[in-house]
Amino acid sequence: EVQLVESGGGLVQAGGSLRLSCVVSGSTFDDIGWFRQAPDKAREMLSCTSISDDTTYYGASVKGRFTVSTDNAKNTVYLQMNSLKPEDTALYFCTTAGRLANCISGDYRYWGQGTQVTVSS
User: Fold this and answer.
1) What is the pLDDT of residue 55?
2) Distance CA 102, CA 113 (A)
3) Rounded to 10 degrees, what is the CA torsion of 119, 61, 41, 70?
4) Contact partners, residue 30, CB within 8 Å, separation at least 6
5) Residue 87: phi, psi to the nearest 5?
6) Averaged over 80-108, what is the pLDDT?
7) Closest C-alpha among 116, 108, 117, 113 to residue 32
8) Are 46 and 20 in contact (CB under 8 A)?
9) Once rounded to an integer, what is the mean pLDDT over residues 75-88?
10) What is the CB neighbour count within 10 angstroms for residue 98?
11) 3-state SS of 54-81?
């Protein structure tokens, strides 16, 4: 059984920071991504990480504000989010895509329940 558990969301004022965590089990720990979904808006890819290649692709909207890191021993992926804006308000999900190219294209395989991030002005 593949499980992905996101945590770390919450309420933060504009300009603040949050670090999200994603614990992966029941799956090869590779090709892990983050995406978000706001009400009545399209799903947006944020990052896609090839752990085996030590490579991360970021969505164009990130503009250097978000950074991915990993703790391979704990099968955990982190998303450090800085300089948060109200437009960042959304449900944040981590995902396994099977292949890095699938993550980049938005063809996700599994994801968790999500963690809510709300940024106030």
Assistant:
1) 94
2) 20
3) -70
4) 50, 51, 52
5) -65, -15
6) 94
7) 108
8) no
9) 97
10) 16
11) CEEEECHHHCCCEEEEEEHHHCEEEEEE
84 SS3 class: coil
**Hey, what are 4's tokens?**
């992905």
Amino acid (1-letter code) at residue 53: D
Distance of CA 42 to the CA centre of its chain: 15
pLDDT in tens, 6-37: 999 999 999 999 999 999 999 889 999 999 99
Measured between alpha carbons, how far is 19 from 121 in angstroms, rounded to an integer?
Answer: 19
How big is the CA angle at 31 (ends 2 and 7), to the nearest 5 degrees?
60
Residue-wise pLDDT for 35-55, tens only, equals 999 999 999 999 999 999 999
The residue type of 106 is G
Separation of alpha carbons 46 and 24, rounded Å: 18
Q: Tokens 């590779």 identify what position?
A: 30
